[in-house]
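Complex record, two chains
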Amino acid sequence: MNREKIKAPHQIISANINVSQIYILFCFFTIVFYFTWWLDFGNAGNPLLFGLLFIGEVYHIWQALGYLYTIWDQRKLKPRALKEFYPVDVFITVCGEPRDVVEKTLKAVLAMDYSDFKLFILNDGKGRDLPNWRDISALAEEYGVKAIVRDNNKGAKAGNINNGLANSSAPFFAVFDADHVPHKDFLKKTMPYFEDPKMAIVQTPQYYQNRGDGFLTQAAWEQQELFFGPICRGKNRLNATFWCGTNAVIRREALLEVGGVPEDNIAEDFLASLFMHEKGWNSVYVSEVLTDGMAPFNLGDYVKQQFRWARGSSEVIFHHNPIFKKGLSFGQKVQYLYSSSYYINGFIVLIDALIPIVVLFTKVLPVKSTTSEFMIYFFPFMFSTIHLLMLSTQNTITFRAIQLSISSFHVFIKACLSSLFRIPARFEVTPKAKETGNFLSFASFHFIYVAVGFIAITYGFLTQGFSPSVITNGSWILFNIAFFFGFIRAAYPWKQSFDNALEKLKTLLGLYKEFNVVERYDYSPVMQYTETSSGGGGESIDRGNILISKSFGSEDNAKLKNN
Amino acid sequence: MQNSKTINSINSKFNQRLHILLIILTLSVGLILRAWNLGSESLRLDEAQSIWQASHSIEFIKEYMLKNVHLPLHNTLLHFWIEIFGTSETAVRIMAVIPGMLTLPFLYLLSREILGRKGALISLILASVSPFWVWYSREIRMYTLLTLVTTLSYLFFVKVMKTGKLRYLIFYSAANLVGIYTHYFFFLVLLVQSLFFLYSWKKHWIEGHTANVNKKKLLAGFIFSAVITLAAFYPWVRALYESYGSGTLAPVLAKPTTFNLVLSFFEFVFGFLPVNLTGILIAFWPLLTLLGFIFLTKRQNPFSRGFQLVILGTFLPIFLVYIVSIVYKPMYLTRYLMPATPMFFIFISWYIVELRGKLKLIFIISYLIIIALAIHVQFTSTENPARENYRDAVDYVTASATPRDIIIVSPPYIIYPFQYYYNGNTRVSTMPIWDKKKGGIPQTTIERVQNDTETLRRGHQRMFLILTTGLEGSDIVKMYFDNSFTKLDKQQFSKDVWIHVYQGEYY
């Protein structure tokens, strides 16, 4: 049997994957073939619904083509040897993270195998009036490291870094979020790329060491794997790697040339990269895990993170559109547009989710073509592109990653709209503490969709019978529900709650048995006592009372037996 | 430690025995489905045609096949079979059951080469209860033989690719020799294998595993095999060339639509179901997309070399035939695509094997429940589009028609099943009038129908029109009769087999 071992995360990120370009071309043809169906407007039913679907499919095709273009050649760069130890300032950005988290990173930085670097803790807790900012400064002092503290929080993380730059002087600086612990050889493996005098950014992957903690962290990591795997490796070819906020080394001169880190945007890293590329600076992605970070622990944190990224990307689309940036090459324009347009997917998911419901309620059809004809165009496109996704990630991406991404549609929509209408957004740090709990409010859209979807299916069957149209649209609703289930699953510790409920039920059953035993002895005072002690009858007995009743029941039974 | 080893050994033995038990059980179910009540169903048109041809001399079979779209091997074998066992429905269909059953263990072996033991067992289960395979295992045509040689050819091809051993090359060549005289579409199997071999020229069967297989030697072996195969086929090609232009008995096929493509895959899975049920099941296609999505993005194992062969062997023949049918000449019929089915079942098995935990069991059980229902509907529904109940139709005319009536069968080739069953003394003719020994069937036109009807109607009180709808010319005949004569009665025997009784001449 031909089974090959799946590679470890480090290996995937670092893999030297070369997807067959013949297969990529095949996928290209399936995409074009599929698009020809949509270009045949003879297939259009209701113009509005068809138009909406058409927009959605144009977007999907753009994303698929963008992916093909990106991974056309994703061979990783050959590692370079360090020739010279350039001076480097290392910034750990802190904004309320727990002391132990910061300490771990601090220790790792100090242990880095590089002769000429200076560590700064950019402690931004004071400006935001966070309770532990003094702790962090004390920690820095304890380790003999300089903590740079601001009185205000202007420009959030961007302002913090700019402030760090103003208080330091090395020609290069490395940035680590407080929870991203660098490996010993981080600088040794990144600094050689600065031999190129035009090199501005050397970015490394963000690896989530807590990826195995549960559904959410696993899904979040798989999304990272896709981005820091084939996408970033592909961007290298086009000199389009952008700074991802942490785990990177930046040339001070390049950043200062574009006015420092932009403070008016919550995706300051993305925008700064765009400006630096526009000025002709280069960037590179080193596809080797050189830090260990943490994935968002819960849905609330994940939503914050996704909103921040989506908002930042939308800012680029709406206010700094790369198409109109003269200094960018064609490849860079495509890459910035491709990456920043990813979050528009929220609108497309919403359109695709609502149309079957509209069809079931109104009987208005968006298309006129036969199902079988559409399938012939659709399936090759669908399965070849997903297969390509698998090939290019060495089968590491799973359904949950896509599920979580698609079910984040409302977060993306909110971010895009807030960017479009310039509604101020606050930079919120992804919390680093492990919290679980009830985040069902984030999944309220999804619950509503499930309810409305089932009503629509029922209505369809009642009004149109068991017709193929109702079945197909009902199936699309189930399709969407399957994807939206990602958020519902992550919003609440269902399993734990189920286990608890089961435990309670077992205990109740145990009590019931106990009662039965007592009843068989016909010892009514016990029952009376139990009811009295429960303070409201047998049915409302809580766990504590159960124990009491069990205890009394047993003793009395024993007495009975003795008598 | 010793205990743990003993437990493991017991477990392993138990699993092995359970595996063998499941194989036996599955094969038994497969046999029951294929052989149970074999003669209960009426012979269908194609079956009756095969029996008619096979009941002639070998030379006649050859000459007839030269004008047809099929090859002579199956009907030649049937010729000898009939001489020994006779022509009853059960007797002839056993000749289809045998290769139908033999395919199952070989499919197991082929699947084992690609998916391993568990995958092979799943393939065996799927194939054993496949309504599509069961249907053709109960039909005396060449399709089960074609499936068998296809499976054998793939099995030995994979063996050769993996080991490079000469004995497998010999078995492979032998299977191909049978295959090329069984059906023209067997060449698609050889095409798939050739493309796969060229594609994997620089690759090993197992990624990174440098097995001791010399690709150049393999190439020489395959070329040698191809030369033998082509040399063996040469006499037939020459005979075809020489008989070119002497008339054709090839059926006229319609250009396929995309629906035919979808329907083929549907029938591979569910067999032949009533049209409305087929429509309903196909309407669930978004869920198929979801299944594909979940599967492709939730799997643990990379795509193996063998899997690439499975994909190629499943899809290439179908799409190639479809494209040729669109751009050159229609030749698309689902049953002709039988060579794609062994790989298709392995493809589904692969899907199931890759599922994890309880999902696998749930999927298998759901699949088997749906297939059990499909088989039930296939065998019991009168709306099954593949059922042709000529036996009851003939019984009806035998009981109703008198020597003063005439029986007209249309389209003309319906005469084969009719003659198989009919033993009465009413005059019989076809519409249009056709002498099957003289060659091709005349084209059905309204003028010809009018003239031939006038000829046949004379002197007959009633006309019993046995009509199979959905075939070339049947709608013209029915329309003419309905518009020209008084209808006295009509009876339906299966979805497309009808008898319409019209008033002939008055006495």
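Note: The two ends of chain B are 99 Å apart (CA to CA).
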